[in-house]
Amino acid sequence: MRILLRLATLFVLLPALMACSAGAPDLGYYLQSASGHLRLMGQARAVDDLLADGTTTEPLAGRLRLAQQIRSFASRELGLPDNGSYTRYAEIGRPFVVWNVFAAPELSLDLKRWCFPVAGCVSYRGYFDRDEAERAAEQLRADGWDVQIAGVPAYSTLGWFDDPLLSSFIGFPEPELARLIFHELAHQVVYLKGDSTFNESFATAVEEAGVQRWLAHRADPRLQQQASVLATRRQEFIALLRRHRAQLQAVYASGGPDLAKRDAKRDLFAALRAEYEHLKTHAWQGFSGFDRWFASMPGNAHLASVATYNALVPAFRAMLAEQNGDMRSFFDAVTKLAEMDVAERDRWTKRYSGRGAPSADSTSAFIPQLPGASAKPDEKMQARGGVHD
User: For a pLDDT cut of 90, what percent of the chain falls above it?
Assistant: First the structure.
């Protein structure tokens, strides 16, 4: 009966419940979302069966065993849901499971939103097929929107289904694999209809705390050093994006003519790319983990999503500290917060937001998406976007 209920709600719920994806309320979109997800679920096999199968390669078996250790830690030590999520594995044969389409006006950083009767409004729509995402993006561009397509390695069905491990992220460096699993499981704990910033900031705060505790649990200096390097580079890249986003926002808010705004926009994005290349060459020894963000010409939609995954992270971090680091008490407090009306939540935001300075790990999710397992190790650390996801 439970599985029948899930299948019955899939066509209505799934497009908007992908925590790192979204959709539009048309039948064709619902159909591609439902069929894509059901196809994915059909590909998944139990990890225990794969580990007992003599044909599973040792590199994959090692990653599956690691993922199971992380999964067990998530429930045992972080209080995240103890269910069938991430106990199955699917080889999907592509670098991303979903491609998100973001859109913003030519001279604005306000993302376009699509609304659903069940899950509320979201600021992106996701496709299981890259070509379909491209067609949707082209239509938006033809209508005058500034559009971004971002590959997503994972998404959450918020507990409606047991989300599987995927080949699109199983090969990530250990800290990033843990980060992704903690983030997506957090979406099963609290989901506030129509508030992507709340949902993603909460999940990012959970992943931050989770990774810190996982690294302490592992007590591996090599792993801690790897995580520190990745976090520092992520922080520097995020600071670069924030600075240019603020400059672009000021341009759009000015009273100048549109032609001058277009010129300033072009110059700011050129400066962003140049500064990134300098950072990559001189500070990161050629590290190219964020190159995907520049694979297509960045635009408003790229920078508009910067705040979604991070804006409330300092507030959630302060809230966790107020609970003395107890994750279960924290989850209870966030659940109560999600039940408040908008005015009450706004007061909470003002109370907490200034109490925790952003850290390197607090802003991981909105950055370019993590590439697939076939990527070189130094390319796999890119943070999720819009992803994640």
Answer: 58
> What per-residue string of b and e applies to 256-275 under the rule 16 or more CB within 10 Å gives b?
eeeeebeebbeebbeebeee
Tokens of 125: 């729509």
d(CA 202, CA 223): 25
pLDDT digits (tens, 9 = 90+) for 192-210: 887 888 998 999 999 999 9
- Which of 166, 167, 99, 136 lies closest to 368, judged by CA? 99
298 close to 273: Cβ distance less than 8 angstroms: yes
Inside any domain, residue 59: yes
Nearest in space to 317 (alpha carbons), one of 308, 307, 306, 330: 330
Task: Give the whole-angstrom CA distance, residue 238 versus residue 250.
Answer: 18
344 inside domain: no
Written as six digits, the tokens of 25 are 């309320």
Distance CA 103, CA 123 (A): 8
Comparing C-alpha atoms, which of 146, 178, 170, 157 is closest to residue 84? 157
Residues with Cβ within 8 Å of 218's Cβ and at least 6 positions away in sequence, in order, are 174, 224
Residue 322 lies in a domain: no
Number of folded domains in the chain? 1
Amino acid letter, 80: L
Tell me the C-alpha distance between 203 and 191, whole Å.
10
Domain span at 301: 2-310+358-379
Task: For residue 321, tell me if it sits in a domain.
Answer: no
Q: Position 105: which residue type?
A: P
Give the integer Cα–Cα distance in Å for 254 and 138: 29
